[in-house]
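Annex B, item 7. Sequence and structure tokens for protein A, then protein B.
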Amino acid sequence: MEPEKPTTFFGLDWRIALGFAVSFVWITGGFLYLASIVGLSQFIHLPTADIGSFLEGAFAPLAFLWLVIGHFMQQKEIVANTRAIFLQEQSARRQEMHAQRDSFFKLQTLVQDQLGSIAAFHYMSLQALIGTEDEDTDALTAEQTLGASSDSAWFIRKMIALAVSNRQDQAKMHEIFFGTELRERHSDNYIKTFRKLLRAAEAVDTDNMVSEALLHGSPAGILYRIILMVQGEQLIDSLMSLSNEPGSGRSMAG
């Protein structure tokens, strides 16, 4: 909304215009008083001290009037400067927020690549468990290269698919994510890395839209929630909306 424009007369602020009008009326009245009552010739021949005292008394009200007008004009300028400073501060805050968000989205790309790499190493460590130890090594290497170059969520989605296919077997789920020291380390690293990403998102997003999208709308967030549920010994049916079993809607652990 545009600021309210001040009332003007002949291009002057109404206070200045009022001051000029009052001054003109006051001086004109004083001149007429001298001309009709005192007489200009008699006034001119008065002693200098008397003339000074008369002018001092005559112009004192005008001096006070312009002092008051100056005070209000100064107050108006202070209000305008305060508003300008406030707008500049808001603009600086918006620019800072945009800069922080730009930095976050650049960081998000790097962190998602890191999460994809963790998921890739985790998936590679599962080949013997899921019965694909004879799978072509070159094919797995090609998939890992794909995940690292163009699709950082490739192995994250493969881990999600693996979890969904074994969702009814709690022991197998625990074996997938925490069965060995290496898998447990991969799962812990994934949780810690994703939590750092969430904290960074919350710091630049007051409405939590970005953090909610990361947690509930991205493959990285879904895998994070799956790991937390497995860590808390809960089935993932409620997470993937694949079952309406009683108790499947319990909150995530951690």
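Protein B:
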Amino acid sequence: MSVPPRVLTVTPNPALDLTVQAGGWQRGEVNAAQAAQQDAGGKGVNVAALLADWGVSVAATGLLGRDNAAPFETLFREKGVIDEFVRVPGAARVGLKIVDRTRGDTTDLNLPGLTVSARALADLQATLRAPPPGVNVVALCGSLPPGVPTTFYAEEVARLRGQGRFVALDTSGQALHAALHAAVLPQLVKPNIHELEAALGRSLTTEAEVLAAARDLIRRGAELVTVSQGERGALLVTAHEALFARPPRVTVQSTVGAGDAMVAGLISAHLDGLGLQSAARRATAFSAGSITRLGAHLPPHAELDALAAQVQVESADALTH
């Protein structure tokens, strides 16, 4: 008998990620690629897969095109993720990831996704109104496809928090703007620095400005704001603490999903009742470990524990003086 899920991830706009290895590729030229692989993806799908790797019982929902659902169904079976996706006509979008190990970067080309009907959206909302028994954490993840209003996450946050659930949010653009300007904020918000700047409509050029912006969200009802800043690390802020976590150096296979791994790490830390410093170490280790793999996969526990021990954690207030 399967263990009831503790976490439900929500991915309204999943994608098949086509990752192409193309070292030294040049824009506007004919380029040779070294390898390619296709993975079922989308932010919430990745978060669910990574939590399952850690040993958390997790369910995943969202809107999934029937025409190419098979890779997602295979992933869920292999990881032991409970499939609660609403099937819709058509095919999930394809996201192209061009990985250049020569330069150490990844270029993303993301298509908009299926246009969602009112019926499909209502079916998803019905799933969220009656999640699987045992779920106490809901992670709202990724972009919204055409047909889903930009206020969708903001409205779901208020309703889910009203049910007493812990809500994590990782999105961008207008969806993040609406959620951060709503009356009720999620308990966990994890934008990257560029997403936060866009949502707030201003540049955050100093550590003090980033810290002040995070603390403003805490004052307005968030409980943990994590601002990821790529290889520099991440700022983690609660009502009582503010820390900056710097990751250890690792051999990068692909940076795709590093933010999703951080969300998974923060959720697992919440489930285990960890303090902020331990949560910062675990989330940073998840992120560092995930980029040593292609696709949404974590290294073994022992390797993650070793990475967590190498994370440098310091007071964020000390960095602003």
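Comment on protein B: The first helix runs from residue 43 to 54.
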